[in-house]
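=== Structure Prediction Worksheet ===
Name of assembly: unnamed complex
Input type: mixed (protein and possibly other molecules)
Chain count: two
Listed entries:
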Amino acid sequence: DGGITQSPKYLFRKEGQNVTLSCEQNLNHDAMYWYRQDPGQGLRLIYYSQIVNDFQKGDIAEGYSVSREKKESFPLTVTSAQKNPTAFYLCASSILGLNTEAFFGQGTRLTVV
Amino acid sequence: QKEVEQDPGPLSVPEGAIVSLNCTYSNSAFQYFMWYRQYSRKGPELLMYTYSSGNKEDGRFTAQVDKSSKYISLFIRDSQPSDSATYLCAMSEIQGAQKLVFGQGTRLTINP
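=== Predicted Assembly ===
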């Protein structure tokens, strides 16, 4: 089955620790995205990448980092610099250019204690 | 003021009712309008996609765009308990998903 796989589904980390969220897609999409979802705030774009080894900051990139070494993979690292990291993180992918539809993974719920 | 405003609800209606979900926006350059459905603890999935103004129907779902009023709506006819979810509107100035702007989402419950 084609799709986007995020792992793990739930993640707990101590304050001050970096943590990496995994996102893999087998849809052969060029573009990949990371969103953060908080109650009452909708989805906010963290980073996106349109091509391997290139990525751009979204609206709330501070405290996060990404890499795009392979077309299929777009991991997100939540660093200790992120002041309020507890949230639901969604990875998405899309065909570059004409198609506006983003396909989403099932999300990772990160809780920092 | 947020670029896209959506009433977060929650909205609770009886099975079979007609549901109206709405978003207003401030950016007149938006041309592409979408509705996503998100079940609890899952990722959103695209429900409806509309370009510019007008109506689009797909089964029990109708999407309306009124660019002059900067207002979009999603109507659900003959609502079912399986329609219970959070509905997110999203919009973009350009084709391509890299500039999507989402509303806050409306949590909808259909009561049997």
